[in-house]
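SEQUENCE-TO-STRUCTURE ENTRY
===========================
What this section holds: a protein sequence and its matching fold, both as plain text.
Tokens: labelled as protein backbone structure tokens, with as many entries as the chain has residues.
Question of interest: how does this chain fold, as expressed in backbone structure tokens?
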Amino acid sequence: MTTRLILGAMNFGTTVDETTSFALLDRFVERGGEWIDTADCYSFWNSETGYGGQSEALIGRWLAARPGMRERVKIATKLGAEPRVAGRWPTSRTGLSAAAVHDAFEGSLRRLGVDAVDLLWLHMEDRFTPIEETAAALAELTESGRTTRVGASNHPVWRVERARQRALATGARPMDALQHNHTYLRARPHTQVTDHRFGVLSDEHLDYAAENGLELWAYSPLIVGAYDNPAKPIPEVYDHSGTTDRLAVLTAVARELGLQRGQVVLSWLAGGDQPIRPILGGSKLDQLDTALDGVAFELPAELRARLDDAVPADPGPAQAAAAAQA
């Protein structure tokens, strides 16, 4: 059975060594894993050169060492966020001009050692380039068969809509997937959860995806292990009364089921009426196995309802002000 979990390869080849990375990739496939998510900029912040490409290159070496594996997995990569000048990100990055898209994509194919990928993401928006220009470049890639699908990560809805309308008007395949930060907890309004202005999955993203049939992927669904690792506290941006309420329900449900809180979060994300595929970026086999078990678990309807109905789901101004004064 194919798992709904996505294996995030962000740190493969940098902070996660090759032996461990290969073991994680092998275990993922053994347990029904299909989608591997990477990017051309992974992980420039951990590399000696200040540039990315290590993750794609490692996946390429793994595919070369595993004959027949390319037919068993699907590869998703991203472009647009690789630094042009090391040490000057985000002011210096490749962006999403037509030339940049084509150049970056050729580099990704070369590092991965493949002729095509299954999904190509725009990693982050580029306000210096008309989104229609980017959409035209993506159309050339889908029409040539070098990528099957295209999607947007960390983009506002209006730019996704413009790109989709451009594709539809020209007979090209439109974007059909969104990738954003998302988890069970909700951050306080006007706080920065990611490095991207539109990085967090919003109600508008959810509504747009539901109305237009877009697939949803979530990065950092476990808040870097904070749900279950006492050494990793819940980040301050989630410090408000809504988090207290939701954590109480989450903890109770996890205890009732005999699962970890993170496993319940993964099941909640993947098994909802509007499924959201979680991306796991762990570095240990037991983390991967635990996550796969969580995603495979089907939450009973009454427990899912308890999680859904935990209030307040989003802190209002008064609650945010009270939390700030506490």
User: Anything to note?
Assistant: The longest strand covers residues 147-153. The mean pLDDT is 94.
